[in-house]
Automatic annotation (TrEMBL):
Single Gene Ontology BP annotation: DNA transposition
GO molecular function, one term: transposase activity
Domain of life: Bacteria
The protein's name in its UniProt record: Transposase
Gene source species: Primorskyibacter flagellatus
Lineage of producing organism: Bacteria, Pseudomonadati, Pseudomonadota, Alphaproteobacteria, Rhodobacterales
Amino acid sequence: MTKRKRYSAEFKAKVALEAIREELTTAELAKKYGIHPTMISGWKKK
């Protein structure tokens, strides 16, 4: 059984702000940070 990874609020905010700026696509950001694109979409909505 694997443990879920937790991300700090600072990390989430950093990624969400980059997503809002739209300099990179969500897929490119996901690859850059090693996370799933759906997570970025959720953080962006918050």
